[in-house]
Design brief:
2-enoyl-CoA Hydratase, Chain A, domain 1, 41% helix, six-stranded parallel sheet, alpha/beta, two-stranded antiparallel sheet
């Protein structure tokens, strides 16, 4: 760059956004708010790029944000808003593990849906809420495409399912037996097995802690922050 060239404030502000789109790595700017809001919307995109018409949350975009939250002394807590149909299993589990290992208070709120691999993310926070009309679909791992070495592939999927189940019932009040009963229930989902829980049903099952909305989520998070100080 020549010495007489200058970068306008607009170009400088656009750089982090451009880096986020291209490589998923940015220096998160300093935030003055004590609560950081993270939205996980649409399908969780992992190692495979989803079609352009799909609404996605890319896990390589989420991970730097969580690292920034942990390192930023100005951030005192994180609120996770979920409306996801699920998606990549390993990416979703990685996000859930990171959320559960944060040192700062965290609250999750399921709005619309927190299905499939969205369930571990929903239960990973210190406090979990679901809207009265929010839904959560519990089902086994699905696999599409060509299966090579069927026996080994089955064992891999079984181990992956065990990892997910272990995380869910170790971060919620649902029992292993109840979780598996919901997972393998027949007759509720067309051409599939599983269970749909709506609002209070998810609370009664022990999956989510309480029913509420944005107001209640902020109240819970502020209580956790005050208790943590």
């Amino acid at each position: 760059m020549r010495s007489d060239e200058t970068i306008s404030p607009e170009e400088d502000n656009d750089a982090p956004v451009s880096n986020l789109k291209e490589v998923g790595q940015i220096q998160i700017p300093d935030v003055v708010e004590r609560i950081y809001c993270l939205s996980i919307i649409g399908q969780i995109e992992g190692h495979q790029i989803l079609p352009a018409q799909s609404k996605t949350t890319k896990y390589e975009h989420v991970i730097p944000q969580l690292l920034a939250v942990e390192q930023n002394p100005k951030v005192e807590g994180i609120l996770v808003i979920l409306n996801t149909a699920g998606g990549d299993v390993e990416a979703g589990l990685a996000i859930a593990e990171m959320l559960s290992s944060l040192s700062k208070p965290s609250v999750s709120l399921v709005l619309g849906g927190g299905h499939s691999i969205g369930i571990p993310i929903a239960v990973s926070c210190m406090k979990s809420l679901i809207a009265p009309t929010g839904t959560m679909t519990i089902h086994p791992i699905r696999y599409t495409g060509l299966v090579i070495n069927g026996h080994q592939q089955f064992e891999y999927l079984q181990k992956m399912q065990e990892r997910i189940n272990q995380f869910i019932y170790s971060h919620s009040n649902i029992s292993k037996e109840k979780l598996e009963n919901f997972m393998f229930q027949t007759g509720e989902l067309a051409q599939d097995i599983g269970t749909i829980l709506i609002g209070q049903q998810a609370v009664e099952a022990g999956l989510i802690q309480t029913v509420g909305g944005v107001k209640e989520a902020f109240k819970e998070l502020n209580c956790l922050i005050n208790h943590n100080q």
